[in-house]
């Protein structure tokens, strides 16, 4: 019997505005002071996401370094940024992902949270983010639905490493089969949670994984209720 639903945060509950590429072009201009075209940004983004996801996949059952750590630095490096990469990467990371004003809440979130709460389901967040992620939940006024917001920064371990899911289950005294995890990343969310025995659901709002028939997918968050 399902007693808890864990959600990933970014791209699951809320996402960059107007999208990641647009948000990064804007924030790079603001923090590093140069213009990037959306096309160039997309090229660089896709390249790094694939590399980072591959690295994260290799960490599934080990205790590796945090895979996403050098992400922003790498973006600036591939954009031929000439200044100090370490400092600029930190600034970019901070401004892009710590300011909730860069994000929008998806319009299916509140209905889903209310319905789950009404069914007595415990709701929590398990995210590969910094500890200030909590600010987003307050900004979007959804913090009251969440029993806790667990971040990789505080836990010292990132999805897909099953340890982070184990920590979340332990906080609630639950077995893996008593929890669902919903997220947008096939590797970090889906395979990470499934590896430990949770019911994994991929939220695929843009039908990106339409050809993948092997995973359990939903396109609207409210569909989670079907699994309760
Ligand atoms: Mg996500």
Short synopsis of the structure:
It is built from 9 helices and 8 strands. The chain is α/β, with parallel strands linked by helices.
Description of the molecule:
- The chain has 228 residues and is of the alpha/beta class.
- It has two domains: 4-15 and 103-227, Rossmann fold (3-Layer(aba) Sandwich); 16-101.
- The protein is built from nine helices and eight strands.
- A six-stranded parallel β-sheet has the order 5-4-1-6-7-8, sandwiched between helices. A two-stranded antiparallel ribbon has the order 2-3.
- Strand 6, helix 9 (186-196) and strand 7 (199-203) form a beta-alpha-beta unit.
- Helix 2 (38-58) runs antiparallel to helix 3 and helix 3 packs across helix 4 (85-98).
- The longest helix has 21 residues, at 38-58.
- The model has no long low-confidence stretch (mean pLDDT 92).
- Magnesium ion binds at residues 8, 10-12, 183-185.
Keywords:
single chain; alpha/beta; Rossmann fold; two-stranded antiparallel sheet; 8 strands; 43% helix; 14% strand
Topology record:
Elements: E1 4-7, E2 14-16, H1 20-32, H2 38-58, H3 71-78, H4 85-98, E3 103-105, H5 109-118, E4 122-127, H6 134-139, E5 148-151, H7 152-155, H8 162-172, E6 179-183, H9 186-196, E7 199-203, E8 217-218
Parallel strand pairs: 1-4, 1-6, 4-5, 6-7, 7-8
Antiparallel strand pairs: 2-3
The structure holds magnesium ion.
Residues 8, 10-12, 183-185 line the site of magnesium ion (MG).
